[in-house]
Amino acid sequence: MARTSSSQYGKINIAIDGPAGAGKSTIARMVASLLSYVYVDTGAMYRAATWYLQNLGIQPEEVDKVLHSIQNLGIELIPGEDGQQVIVNGQDVTAEIRSLTVSSQVSRYAQIEGLRAWLVSLQRQMALRKGVVMDGRDIGTTVLPDAEVKVFMTATVEERARRRFNEMQEQQGITMEKIAHDIAERDRLDQEREVSPLRQAEDAILLDTTQLTPREVASRIVSLTEAYGRENRNDL
Ligand code: DC
After folding, report:
1. pLDDT in tens, 134-158
2. Of all protein residues, whose CA lies closest to atom 18 belonging to ligand 1?
3. Which atom, in ligand 1's list, is nearest to the CA of 186?
4. How far apart are CA 120 and CA 136, in angstroms?
5. Does the Cβ of 141 fall within 6 Å of ligand 1?
6. What's the predicted TM-score (pTM) here?
7. 46 Cβ inside 6 Å of ligand 1
8. pLDDT per residue as tens digits for the range 61-108
């Protein structure tokens, strides 16, 4: 796939939402690279906050402590050759935030309204200058409701567990069943939470990736972006 020249039209924002393991981050990274956009992985921000709070021994039920502690939390996302580095208060936690300890608890911390409000405002700042591909659960509905291109990606639980299993094989003691169970539980928590639940925005395009390669999905999103550019040439 050829890199697209974004100089043909102004940059826009692209929102990619969907459940755990639908392939959002792989695709979002590919799309960002093809369009020379900036990739923002909002799941990594919730994971970074979870890692930080777990390290302090703060439970998700201790909302006051959570809100107090995040005042001292600095999260940086640094784009790199091998993906994005996640830095918490100067410490590289890129690997740590993918551990099962974080993965199994992150949805519980992500239900805290004040924590979400703080992360959402950071995410909006990151998208102010356009040219951002942002993935998460509430990007099209809450974070960037005006994003010019919105995609909601899904895949079956089995396919999503298989993909995660392939990614995580180096972590010992993990079975496909355990991953499928964790994914289904995370879907439930993400869809049922009161604040910004996981759901498709009305104007988002649904992409079922079960049978598609990452390249095919990325191409579809690049085409949608180019089509937007052609149709709105005068607005950009
Ligand atoms: O995409 P991920 O698996 O890295 O996301 C980790 C968790 O963060 C996920 O269980 C739900 C939460 N999340 C969220 O609530 N809102 C977002 N925009 C992104 C992630």
Report:
1. 999 999 999 999 999 999 999 999 9
2. 136
3. 10
4. 11
5. no
6. 0.89
7. yes
8. 999 999 999 999 999 999 877 778 999 999 999 999 999 899 889 999
- Nearest atom (ligand 1) to Cα of 143: 18
The residue whose C-alpha atom lies closest to atom 6 belonging to ligand 1 is 43
What is the best residue among 25, 42, 187, 189 to mutate for testing ligand 1's pocket, by most ligand atoms within 8 Å of CB? Answer: 42
Ligand 1 geometric centre to CA of 115 (Å) = 13
The CB of 54 under 6 Å from ligand 1? The reply is no
Give all domains of the chain, ordered by start, each with its CATH number: 13-230 (3.40.50.300)
